[in-house]
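hey
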């Protein structure tokens, strides 16, 4: 029996799906040439100046900005959902102190699915309610794990505090200062949603099989963890520690290009003239660094940015300036990617709801490039 020639796929292979339009969405638009990002048509600069995170969450999930009552209702539901079930705290207490926080978060999302009464219900109403629970609880999980690994008791959320102040309060036990709250809220607004990035695509692929929201979010968390995606802010901060001093940045960058080492926080698949989110994070990073009297890390960042541009015209992305801003707020470095996740949960859930609404299984083809015709060789005849 002879084997036919491998069948060529109908369309051409595009490495990394670069430029391929895989999904239609009303959630966000990303214009990489002009450096423009919008959520539901509203420019990110306007949202960065004026909106807070819960408003953006509502905008993404419901399609319009909330009126006062709609916003207050959403805030009340998030507050009611913020405490996590006891089993989650037990799970966190039984987690090694040196676990990777993104793995802890992924496990917690799996465990939250087991205690969610609507886990398997993929109707839009149930998915929105689950999205509210996950959005409210991710911060609680992260703060509780951080305290437990430092041999401190977890702190219950304070229902009088909003989403962002609660996050900082549960981490430290102190009433958060307004500047840190404003900066972290802005960060969450900027990171809430972003077109067809790798983790959102993962979430949509999972949802396209009609699997549940928790499964889609667990998949997205796995995708976000990598240093080419959400892990880049932590990797940037570690690069700054490695460089150590502003005057060493140029030599570091020169050597990185010479040795073909990727400089974290630099470059973007879509933005080729700069990332519109970066300027806001830069401004707030500098402000917080000045307040802490520890501008050194921000100065190294700026030196790296300028040196990169001198050697090659590449621009910083959102993770570059997130790094020092989160550091100056006091977020532990290994919690940077989980903080990204706790913000992007808004966009992931909105995409899952959008995918269910007009679902088609996402299932591309592969082009077989192996040998054309081979035969089974009995084991005793193999080399
Ligand atoms: N450091 C050094 N060189 C970089 C670079 C970086 N961070 N980012 C891109 N380049 C170079 C590439 O080596 C490539 O050079 P070449 O043309 O000589 O081969 C060129 O710029 C184009 O980059 P490429 O990797 O093809 O772009 P991409 O669209 O496939 O990748 C990223 C985009 C984000 C994966 C890539 O820029 C990167 O790895 N950045 C660092 C990780 C990061 O910050 N990720 C967060 C993204 S929001």
């Amino acid at each position: 029996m002879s084997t036919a020639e491998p069948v060529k796929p109908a369309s051409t292979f595009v490495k990394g799906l670069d430029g391929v339009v895989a999904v239609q969405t009303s959630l966000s638009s990303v214009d990489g040439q002009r450096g423009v990002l919008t959520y539901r048509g509203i420019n990110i600069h306007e949202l960065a100046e004026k909106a807070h995170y819960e408003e953006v969450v509502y905008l993404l999930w419901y399609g319009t900005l909330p009126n006062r009552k709609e916003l207050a209702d959403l805030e009340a539901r998030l507050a009611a959902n913020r405490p996590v079930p006891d089993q989650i705290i037990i799970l966190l207490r039984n987690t090694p102190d040196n676990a990777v926080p993104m793995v802890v978060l992924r496990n917690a999302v799996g465990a939250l699915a087991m205690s969610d009464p609507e886990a398997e219900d993929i109707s839009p109403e149930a998915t929105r309610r689950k999205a509210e629970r996950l959005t409210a609880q991710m911060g609680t999980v992260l703060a509780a794990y951080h305290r437990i690994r430092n041999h401190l008791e977890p702190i219950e959320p304070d229902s009088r505090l909003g989403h962002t102040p609660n996050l900082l309060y549960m981490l430290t036990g102190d009433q958060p200062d307004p500047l840190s709250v404003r900066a972290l809220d802005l960060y969450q607004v900027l990171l809430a949603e972003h077109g067809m990035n790798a983790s959102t695509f993962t979430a949509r692929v999972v949802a396209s099989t009609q699997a549940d929201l928790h499964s889609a979010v667990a998949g997205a968390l796995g995708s976000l963890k990598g240093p080419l995606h959400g892990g880049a802010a932590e990797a940037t901060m570690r690069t700054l520690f490695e460089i150590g001093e502003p005057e060493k940045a140029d030599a570091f960058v020169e050597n990185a290009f010479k040795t073909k080492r990727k400089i974290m926080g630099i470059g973007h698949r879509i933005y080729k003239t700069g990332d519109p989110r970066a300027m806001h994070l830069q401004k707030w990073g500098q402000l917080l660094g000045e307040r802490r009297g520890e501008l050194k890390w921000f100065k190294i960042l700026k030196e790296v940015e300028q040196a990169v541009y001198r050697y090659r015209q590449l621009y910083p992305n959102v993770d570059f300036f997130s790094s020092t801003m989160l550091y100056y707020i006091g977020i532990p470095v290994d919690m940077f990617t989980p903080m990204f996740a706790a913000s992007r949960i808004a966009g992931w859930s909105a995409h899952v709801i959008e995918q269910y609404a007009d679902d088609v299984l996402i299932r591309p083809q592969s082009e077989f490039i192996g040998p054309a015709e081979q035969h089974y060789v009995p084991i005793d005849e193999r080399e």
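The pocket of coenzyme A is lined by residues 16, 228-229, 232, 262-269, 314, 317-319 (CB under 6 Å). Residues 246 and 300 are 4 Å apart (CA to CA).
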